[in-house]
Structure formats: structure tokens, C-alpha cells
Amino acid sequence: MANPSTPSPTHLALRADHLKVYYGSTLAVRDVNLEVPTNEIVAFIGPSGCGKSTVLRCFNRMNDLIPGCRVEGHITFHGQDIYGTQVDPVSLRRRIGMVFQKANPFSQSIYENIAWAARINGYQGDLDELVETSLRRAAVWEEVKDKLRESGLSLSGGQQQRLCIARAIAIQPDIILMDEPCSALDPISTIKIEETMQQIKADYTIIIVTHNMQQASRVSDRTAFFNAEATDRGGKVGFLVEYDRTEVIFNSPREQYTRDYVSGRFG
Questions:
Q1: In this structure, is residue 28 part of a structural domain?
Q2: Total structural domains in the chain?
Q3: Cα(42)–Cα(62) distance, rounded to whole angstroms?
């Protein structure tokens, strides 16, 4: 693995050391080591089945919800092992939010999509102010401010996804994970999501899984390229090939696998 410019430990949001993920007895991802600095956007790229989303879900323990899934190695969040026995996964997910590939707004009103999420997480401030601030930060306020009592499901796909980003922001996390957030969106909506990410990274660390290499090159500060190799059992195991500043990955990668992928020779 390439060794990127290393951030100071005090400026690390997440660190994975020798991370392995199993489904039952099957090794799905092997020996991932990477550091995610605070207030940066990190993109995970690579072909289907290489473990990008599996690794992403490790960061807020969403894989705990998958029967038979087991994680080995260490992931530290601001220096604390998130798989330690003292860590409550529900509390962890308040600090490490997630936006999924398919927008999943609640059927309640646009207002309640934000207010409910904040309320159940103990928010005691002005809900009206929080709703407006969260929607503004997700770049969707001007489009929805006159229909806050309408269902979140009444919005377009791109608006729904930005509503989900606003909902994640409302909980006031440290990190926002995004798993292919633009894969089902049109180009204009995709641009708005990318602009939103750039606007909010001053306050949040963002990790995005994307199949779109152009998107990764546009929005991210660092890029991790994953690949997969065949196993003796006929399956595949994912692994991290190279992780570095985005301009290095796309312009002067160290690994041949990376050069072949970013040049379109496979994928």
C-alpha cells in the first residue's frame, strides 16, 4: 500500500489497522490499513465486489446487523476502539451518521424528517432553527421551505437524498458516511450533492463510496482504491491496493493495479 502524507494523530477522525471482515467463515476483506483525517473527503473506489461498502459499514458498526458478519483488527474513532466492549453501537451511530445509496426519507413531513431525528437523539434547542439550518446546509432549503408540512416522499430523488443528508446533519455527527449517494440520481442532482459535500466538509469528515471515478476526482481530498482477487474456494476477497492524496491516485499512482483501473483498463 502506498504511504500517503500522514496527518497528525490529533487530526485523525478514523484509523483502521489490519481490518478484516468475515461473513461466516468466509474472508470478505483482508488487512485494510488507512487513516482518515478530520474535515476531509475520502473516496473509496474500485470494481464491484471489492469490499468498499463492507469497509464503510464497519466504521459505524452497521455490519453488526448482518448475521454471521465478524470484524477483526482495530478501528479507532478519535483514538477509541469502536469495537471495544464499552462502546454502544447506537451512540456511535449518532456520531458517525450514514447516507445510503437509495434515499430513505421517512413518510412524515419534511419538517419531521429533521425534527424527529434530532428529538430522539435528545436535542433540546430550537427545532425550527435546527430544521432550517440543516436543510440550508444540505442545499435544499430554498426548494422545500414552502412545503415543510408535505411528506418527504413527495420530493424528487435528488431532493430526497439531500433531505437525508440534512437529517444526518441534524444529529450533529462528527463523520458522515455516504454509500453511493448519487448512483440513482440525474447529473444535475449529482452536482448538487457534490456541492453540498464541499460546503459541509469544514464541519464534518466525509467518506464516500462511489463507482464514479470522475466524482471521486472532483470531490475528494484522498482516495482509496480497492480491488478483489479470487480465492481457492472460488469466491473473492477484497483488499486495499493504494491510498493517497486524490491527485496522486489519479495522476501518478504507485501500483499497476491502480494505474490500470483509473485508466479504464478494467472495472
A1: yes
A2: 1
A3: 19
pTM confidence score:
0.91
Contact 97, 168 (CB under 8 A): yes
Label each residue of the chain as H, E or C: CCCCCCCCHHHEEEEEEEEEEEECCEEEEEEEEEEEECCCEEEEECCCCCCHHHHHHHCCCHHHHCCCEEEEEEEEECCEECCCCCCCHHHHHHHEEEECCCCCCCCCEHHHHHHHHHHHCCCCCCHHHHHHHHHHHCCCHHHHCCCCCCEHHHCCHHHHHHHHHHHHHHCCCCEEEEECCCCCCCHHHHHHHHHHHHHHCCCCEEEEECCCHHHHHHHCCEEEEEEEEECCCCCEEEEEEEEEEHHHHHHCCCCHHHHHHHCCCCC
Are 41 and 220 in contact by the 8 Å Cβ rule? The answer is: yes
Domain that holds residue 193: 9-102+174-262
Please check whether residue 261 is in contact with residue 225, taking contact to mean a CB–CB distance below 8 angstroms. Answer: yes
Output the nine-digit C-alpha cell for 70.
465478524
Question: Taking every pair of C-alpha atoms in the chain, what is the biggest distance, in angstroms?
Answer: 58
| List of the chain residues with pLDDT < 70 | 1-10, 267
